[in-house]
Design brief:
The protein is globular, with a radius of gyration of 19 Å. It has about 280 residues and is of the alpha/beta class. It has two domains: about 120 residues, Alpha-Beta Complex (Quinone Oxidoreductase, Chain A, domain 1), CATH 3.90.180.10; about 150 residues, Quinone Oxidoreductase, Chain A, domain 1 (Alpha-Beta Complex), CATH 3.90.180. The chain starts with a strand and ends in a 19-residue tail after the last strand. It contains eight helices and 13 strands. Helix 4 packs across helix 5. About 20% of the residues lie in helices and about 25% in strands. Bound molecules: NADP nicotinamide-adenine-dinucleotide phosphate (NAP). The site of NADP nicotinamide-adenine-dinucleotide phosphate has 26 residues, from helix 1, helix 4, helix 5 and strand 9.
Length: about 280
């Protein structure tokens, strides 16, 4: 099969189109004929081998998984003997290691049936960013109807899902983005949009029950003045591992929370604990 392969960490010119063997599926996995794969920030970081500590998992000195790509949508071609939820011919979407290829081996627990009203391209855009947004809002942020939620980085992969999901949970949503993205974020349903190049969202007088911080790395003191007394702040792991170093390895994705009311409540979730939206 053909696949995008990286044999060393580096910029995109480290990627090559090559003929390689089809993946062999284990007992709990399925073989997916890939119809669409998405590219997100995590892919960019993995190809570069950032943060450096992630190379302990992804391979030293070179990547041990030659094919990058996490988000996948496609049709199942074969199933392992222990697979009981899916069958050949099913149209599915989810996440895996190695979706930038004609075929990917995917554990059945990381896939769901593709809704018929989504194209493969649309479905492939959902898993990593959509679940990060869902976990941050529902599981870590515990968002409730009527709450004030601000999404910093509302125009990005995670933020654009977070705006829509927060609205679906009944929250009043403020999106923070750059000038060029204001119309996009408004079109996603945000009740208020703040252009961070023009205005500091912590100085509008509005207080938030939940701050989702996907970008910006503002100081805690800065953010705290925009929180209600029992407000929650959820940040992406960019901050946890130190700004420009980027997020933790995708398989270690986690969203951490700090409840100011309880002092330092902190929880992290692994991909295995994700639950499906559909
Ligand atoms: N835990 C998980 O499972 C998981 C999954 C995916 C991503 N993540 C992490 O979540 C974070 C966001 O990922 P992403 O895929 O959404 O990234 P992204 O697509 O690059 O989006 C980030 C957005 O932030 C905006 N931005 C930049 N500087 C800003 C600032 N100072 N204030 C407000 N907004 C600013 C940019 O939009 P403008 O052009 O409008 O400024 C950009 O669209 C990353 O740290 C990523 O590693 C975690």
């Amino acid at each position: 099969m053909q696949a995008i392969v990286h044999s060393r960490y580096g910029p995109p010119d480290a990627l090559e189109l090559k003929d390689i063997d089809k993946p062999v599926i284990n007992d709990d996995a399925v073989l997916v004929k890939v119809r669409a794969a998405a590219v997100g920030k995590g892919d960019w970081l993995t190809v570069q081998g950032l943060p450096y500590v992630a190379r302990l998992r992804y391979g030293l000195p070179n990547p041990k998984h030659p094919v990058p790509g996490f988000d996948v949508a496609g049709r199942i071609e074969a199933v392992g003997p222990n697979v009981n939820r899916l069958q050949a011919g099913d149209e599915v979407f989810g996440w895996c290691d190695g979706s930038f290829a004609e075929y990917a081996s995917v554990p059945q627990g990381q896939l769901a049936q593709k809704p018929a009203n989504l194209s493969f391209e649309q479905a492939a855009a959902v898993p990593i960013s959509g679940f990060a947004a869902l976990q941050a809002l529902r599981d870590t942020g515990a968002v409730q109807p009527g709450q004030q939620v601000v999404v910093i980085g509302a125009s990005g992969g995670v933020g654009s899902f977070a705006v829509q999901l927060a609205k679906a949970f009944g929250a009043q949503v403020t999106g923070v983005c750059s000038t060029n993205s204001v119309d996009l974020v408004r079109s996603l349903g945000a009740d208020h949009v703040i252009d961070y190049t023009q205005q500091d969202f912590t100085r509008t007088g509005r207080r938030y029950d939940l701050i989702l911080e996907m970008a910006g790395n503002r100081s805690l003191a800065h953010l705290r003045r925009a929180l209600t007394p029992r407000g929650r702040w959820c940040w992406s792991e960019d901050r946890a591992v130190g700004g420009s170093w980027g997020p933790a390895a995708p398989s270690e994705r986690s969203w951490c929370r700090r409840s100011w009311a309880s002092g330092c409540g902190r929880s992290c979730q692994s991909p295995g604990e994700r639950t499906w939206l559909f």
